[in-house]
Amino acid sequence: MNRALTLKWFAVLGLASLFYLLAPRDVSPQMPLYLGMTSAAVIIWTFDLLPAVAVAAALTFLYLLTNMAPPEVVLGPWTTVLIWTTFGAAIFGEAMEKTGLAKRVALRCMLLTGGTFTGMLIGFAIGGIILGLLLASGFARTVIFCAIAVGIIRALDIDPKSRLSSIIVIACFFAAAAPTMQFLHTSESFIWSFQVLMKAIGGNVDWWEYLNHACFINTIYVALSFLTIYFMRGKVRLPEGGKLKLILEERLAEMGPMTVSEKRLLVLAILGILGFMVEPWTGVNAVYVLCLVALFCYMPGMKIMEPSSFNNLNIVFLVFVAGCMAIGFVAGEVGANKWAVSSIIPFLKELPPTLGVLCSYLAGVVTNLLLTPFAATVAFTPAFGELGVQMGVNPLPLFYAFEYGLDQYFFPYEGVMFLYIFTTGCVTLKHVIPTMIARCIVAGAFIAVIAIPYWTFIGIM
């Protein structure tokens, strides 16, 4: 074991011990051990000392072995819709990658917007929104857009360690991540977190109502994300001569005409979307419709996916998702949620609703540095209902602002989607951080100047 690795493990033990010693003792007997174990897992994720899935599984078993919470609580994530949304989205993602449908949509959008740097950004943005409508998986969209970005970088002979290379990959990440709140079904985690909030407040917001709440302003958010790249690019430029447009045309020509499999997959994706659109009238949970429709990809007559390929589906990722969610589930059992809410309510109650929403955004940004988005969602989403009651405001804007905060990333460990872009070898952290900081500031201004006035106008604030 080298010195750097030894120091990292000492940091894990030291910081976990510190959290254990500083934990409030009056909340519950389990609180100190909960914070100690959970912080150790998060720090191991941060330093990438062990496989993320293994850490998530180990944390789940430790919660059970230490009687931190009953098994039905610790293993509760497996009974939620998020696990099955992720399952269905993984199938659609695999099918879209195999048939080339998602790649075709993205290439077509980029080609229609021209072969310039600005056109590339616009193409990524439009492609991201369209794929967000068709594919309810941010991670799957990240994989697809990264493949396109790496193809562009290699075809243009761009140095993978250069600023331009990093900018192209960041653009593909924004295309996948920024539309997360575009529609109610755009992200597997957002579908689930929204249902958690509705259960906590005893309310109901259907697909069409949410469209009114978020679609318009999130389009602006997507545009602002890409404008951040445009202004942070410095002096870097794409190679001259419209070479990018030629490359895009070549890539699209290589794919040939749209196949029967792609057309059938498109129909299935539309059926999955329709499940969410008609849910207010059918009363049928659209998540299960999505999963059932996704399984049709393996039907022999469909010729979309080979039935035998189902065994190769990467569903180990579900263990990671469930482990992250268990952090939040157990937090509620040991009283961490109520403790956090009771600690901040006296402060928030003195603030006007506008500042309360901005504080929710900042809370999302800070929380994402400390926990994974899954764990943060489970830990804090139910609290927004209580916060709304205590502050005398609608909890929806508080929740929306918090979710925008969770979409701000700075380091790879913060989220699987953000971590994935670094596996391409075409992005450098020193080029990424300034753009992400600028985006975080722009997003805060977006909440204050655009989102809050809009939510006030439509009557949810």
Automatic annotation (TrEMBL):
Q: Where in the cell is it found?
A: Membrane
Q: What is the predominant subcellular site recorded for this chain?
A: membrane
Gene Ontology terms, MF aspect? organic anion transmembrane transporter activity
Whether Transmembrane counts among this entry's keywords is: yes
Q: Which residues form the signal peptide?
A: none
Q: How does it sit in the membrane?
A: Multi-pass membrane protein
Name the residues that span the membrane.
6-23, 35-63, 75-93, 105-133, 164-184, 210-231, 265-295, 315-334, 355-380, 410-429, 436-458
Gene Ontology, cellular component aspect: plasma membrane
Q: Which branch of life, at top level?
A: Bacteria
GO BP, sorted A to Z: carboxylic acid transmembrane transport
| Keywords tagged on the record | Membrane, Transmembrane, Transmembrane helix
Please name the InterPro entries in this protein's record: SLC13A/DASS
Asked if tRNA processing is a keyword of the record, the answer is no
Identification of the protein by name: Divalent anion:Na+ symporter (DASS) family transporter
Q: Which organism is it from?
A: Bilophila wadsworthia (strain 3_1_6)
Organism lineage string: Bacteria, Pseudomonadati, Thermodesulfobacteriota, Desulfovibrionia, Desulfovibrionales
